[in-house]
Amino acid sequence: MPRLSPYAGFRGAASARVSPPRGRILSSPVSPVRRSLVSLLWVLVLLASVLPAAPQNAPDTQEIVVRAYTFRYQQASEALPMIYPLLSPRGAVELQPSGNTLVIRDTVAAIRKLMPVLKAYDHRARDLRLEIYVVRASRTTVSPQVQHSDLPEELTKRLRGMLAFDNFEKQAQAQLAGVEGQSVMYELGPEYKVSFRFGTLSDDRRVKLSNFRISRRLEGRQELDLLHANLTLSANHTTSLGLAPSESSPEALMLVLTLRDGGGARR
Predict the structure, then answer these.
(1) Residue 126 pairs with which residues in a beta bridge?
(2) How many whole angstroms separate alpha carbon 87 and alpha carbon 102?
(3) What is the pLDDT of residues 77-98, one digit of tens each?
């Protein structure tokens, strides 16, 4: 039997022999510096694919822009005291009462801080309640001293702790309910009348009573204003105002106000 050659072809075909390649593969040496540069380029390519692209045309935070905000629920004029401290030295604000709108001109950075404050302030009107007492306060001038009060016991203790009066006689009383932004006018008994407008409950739990006016009318005399001012009250705190010729007067007419938060917004 003939022996098969490792390089023999198929039967009937001419035999073919595979010859090993002649010569050798040339290689060029790579310097350490070039190898480091190539590695650095690969690192840069990988970083470029991972890091986010820089924003295009990012606005300058010190650029002056103009923004208008129209209030849906609150009065734009009531927001002014809150806005002024937030303006930058280059800022300005304009009130447009007819559209209940504030137009603010300021830097981009300042506007970014202002807008969330305005949106949080412009909420649906919340319930408020004002408890009001008109009290005649006096000092005891006879001995032995006799103390009298027809006010609630807790309120009497509070007034005696703050004021140099012994006796408190209630002249009129009312609990006036309303909502933020509502105007109120009420007859306090036969002699007194009160009017004001509820402001907005701020983040520090204070409410401004705008154009607060209490007057007294006696038979046969012209109505007399006892107090006409803007008042700011803290929620769930009692404020007392004394109306007297001087601090040493033996008598005074006291106005005792307590603001209550209704605890929710009207729908």
Answers:
(1) 265
(2) 13
(3) 889 988 999 999 999 999 999 9
Q: CA-to-CA distance for 139 and 248, rounded, in angstroms?
A: 10
Which DSSP string corresponds to 33-65?
A: HHHHHHHHHHHHHHHHHHSPPPPTTPPPTTSEE
Beta carbons of 174 and 132 less than 8 angstroms apart: yes
As a dihedral over the C-alpha atoms of residue 27, residue 28, residue 33, residue 38, rounded to 10 degrees, the angle is -60
Helix %, strand %, coil % of the chain (to 5): 20, 40, 40
Q: Which two tokens stand for residue 256?
A: 């005792």
How many other CB atoms are found less than 10 A from the CB of residue 162?
11
CA torsion, ordered 57, 58, 62, 65, to nearest 10 deg:
70
- Structure letter (DSSP) for residue 157: H
Domain limits, CATH 3.30.1370.120, in the chain:
64-121
Report the SS3 class of residue 26: coil
pLDDT tens-digit readout, 198-242: 998 887 888 999 999 999 988 778 889 999 999 999 999 999 898
CATH 3.40.50.410 fits 64-121, yes or no: no
Instruction: Mention every residue, 6+ apart, whose C-beta is less than 8 A from residue 37.
Output: none
Task: Tell me phi and psi for residue 34, to 5 degrees.
Answer: -65, -40
Do residues 186 and 142 touch, judged by C-beta distance below 8 A? no
Distance set, CA 166 to CA 11, 39, 77 (Å): 136, 92, 42
DSSP classification of residue 74: S
Q: 235 and 209 in contact (C-beta within 8 Å)? A: no
Q: For residue 223, give every residue at least 6 positions away whose Cβ sits within 8 Å of its Cβ, in sequence order, or none.
A: 193, 215, 216, 217
